[in-house]
Write a structure and sequence with these properties.
Length: about 375
């Protein structure tokens, strides 16, 4: 009897359910990570998946399993990626879709949900609140609740990603996976361990929300770049899978999530959201070292980034690297005073982005101005 809660046949059936919609996303070499950390590091670019994340795998499998039972529609509580995936899958099958989201959910993700024809409603401050609101709606209306991770059918769908890793990376030694509710990490762990029991599976959580690592977040909204994995309560189905089949869980700090996002944009030309980039954060932190032999694969689980966040990330990175400075200087408040300062900047090869004059509220001579 299999020790795995999901059989290989379930994963193959999930692959068939997603055929024509779910993409086989590329595995790309990362020379920058390999040179920096050693071993052989590759990236599973699930950020290039349809709807922008791995979630479409589980959503398509769930809708396929429901058949006529979904005729009244489906409902879910989600921070964004599951919402997009379920909305897309529901549109594919021609059934209504209602999504409940926590306050502060990603605007770009919500816009995509609406574009797929779903109805969107705010459902509390946290993901748990949104799921509870979805359950209440399902009980009242007869719609089918589609949990974002705590469902064996959804986990089987996410496991198809692990199946692709086994098929595409013959010398696979380590897989680093973002860990939120456990659907992706658990599914990947099952699919990989069934074929390659020796492979090390590492789950990565973010400091703001790391219940699998024993860091239980406080009540209220969670503020993190990695909103896609900010799940306060592990699932009843997924928790035992993580405990049995995941070899290690590490927790990364928020600053390293930002660093990983910028590094992936700069070096790999990949647009990855915070929750999808935490595997790279784990390497940057030094908590995870690539395998000395074989290939280490970092799963980039999603690419749904709010466009407004990107300039902030770039400015932060440039400031840390010493390429952007904020200076306050006193100059003569006479004609030509600012011109002389700008000449100094030009001589140093610097580009001035913004100038602000300050004449009030600080200790300045009457013939001086702050710049």
């Amino acid at each position: 009897m299999s020790v795995f809660p999901i059989d290989p046949s379930d994963i193959l059936a999930a692959r068939k359910a997603g055929a024509g919609v779910v993409k086989r996303t590329p595995v790309t070499e990362s020379l920058s990570l390999t040179e920096r950390f050693g071993g052989n590091v590759v990236l599973k670019a699930e950020n290039l998946q349809r709807t922008g994340s791995f979630k479409i795998r589980g959503a398509m499998n769930k809708l396929a399993s429901l058949g006529d039972a979904a005729k009244n529609g489906v409902v879910a509580g989600s921070a964004g990626n599951h919402a997009q995936a379920l909305a897309f899958a529901a549109k594919h099958y021609g059934v209504p879709c209602q999504i409940f989201v926590p306050s502060g959910a990603s605007l770009s993700k919500m816009k995509a949900v609406l574009s797929y024809g779903a109805t969107l409603t705010e459902g509390g401050d946290t993901l748990s609140d949104a799921v509870a609101a979805a359950q209440e709606h399902a009980d009242r209306t007869g719609m089918i609740l589609c949990h974002p991770f705590d469902d064996p059918i959804v986990v089987a769908g996410q496991a198809t990603l692990g199946l692709e890793l086994v098929e595409d990376i013959p010398d696979l030694a380590t897989v680093i996976v973002p860990l939120g509710g456990g659907g992706l990490t658990g599914g990947v762990a099952i699919a990989v361990k069934q074929a390659m029991p020796h492979v090390r599976i590492i789950g990565v959580q973010v400091r703001a929300c790391a219940p699998y690592a024993g860091d239980h977040p406080a009540d209220g909204p969670i503020v993190t770049l990695a909103d896609g994995i900010a799940v306060k309560t592990p699932g009843d189905f997924t928790r035992p899978i993580i405990e049995q089949f995941v070899d290690e869980i590490v927790v990364v700090e928020e600053d390293l999530v930002a660093d990983a996002m910028v590094m992936l944009m700069d070096r790999s030309k990949l647009y990855v959201e915070g929750g999808g980039a935490v595997g790279v954060s784990a390497l940057l932190s030094g908590q995870v070292v690539p395998s000395a032999t074989g290939t280490t694969c970092v799963v980039l689980s999603g690419g749904n980034v709010d466009l407004g966040l990107v300039p902030n990330l770039i400015r932060r990175n440039e400031t840390q690297a010493g390429r952007r400075l904020i200076l306050f200087v006193r100059i003569s408040d006479r004609p030509g005073g600012l011109a002389r300062l700008l000449t100094l900047f030009a001589g140093a090869g610097a580009n001035l982005i913004e100038v602000e004059h300050v004449r009030e509220g600080i200790s300045l001579h009457v013939r001086e101005t702050g710049v």
